[in-house]
Amino acid sequence: MINSPAKPRARFLFAHGAGAPMDSDFMQAIATGLCARAIEVVRFEFPYMAERRRGGGKRPPNPMPQLQESFREQIELAAQRAGNLPLYIGGKSMGGRVASLLAQEYVDKGTVAGLVCLGYPFHPRGKPDKLRTEHLLALSCPALIVQGSRDPLGNAEEVAGYDLPSSIRVAWLEDGDHDFKPRRASGFTREQHWQSASDAIAAFIQPSPES
Known about the structure:
Elements: E1 2-3, E2 10-15, H1 25-35, E3 39-44, H2 47-53, H3 64-80, E4 87-92, H4 94-109, E5 114-118, E6 143-148, H5 156-160, E7 168-173, H6 190-205
Helix pairs in contact: 1-6, 3-4
């Protein structure tokens, strides 16, 4: 599934999270938002999700090695697409985690320009001691994490204590949850946060000359 603007300036390979497909409301909103900001968005589904779509029932995610292999195949395909555009990889939650395990390798190869994670799962829900940060601490490639400040898989207070490297920028969405949805009392809406996420990604991928 591809959202391509008339004159794209970059390409983003965008993977879904564990529970929702590539055409969920979240994925659609971000893809549409980035396309409006001159970024081509290529979406795909991991094998288990593609099987669900074919009527295979509610299957769990594939083991991590299979998820990574599937993502590798998509990186190669995206890199071969016409236009010779700078390629960024990333995804929502689990999709971003898979991309983060591959990003340094492909940036070092010159295939990929950077990493974008939306709602990174720093730890499983309710298990803040089981961190998924070891590989992040070794990243030197350009990376952006867009995170809701009250994400149950890594909130602002928790992430502040992880000592992430300077190569990783974190853009916070005030009072947002794992899908960036804020509480009504915050004064923000989910749709506003989705637009803010698109702004942050576009600024990271296409920085202004003075930034």
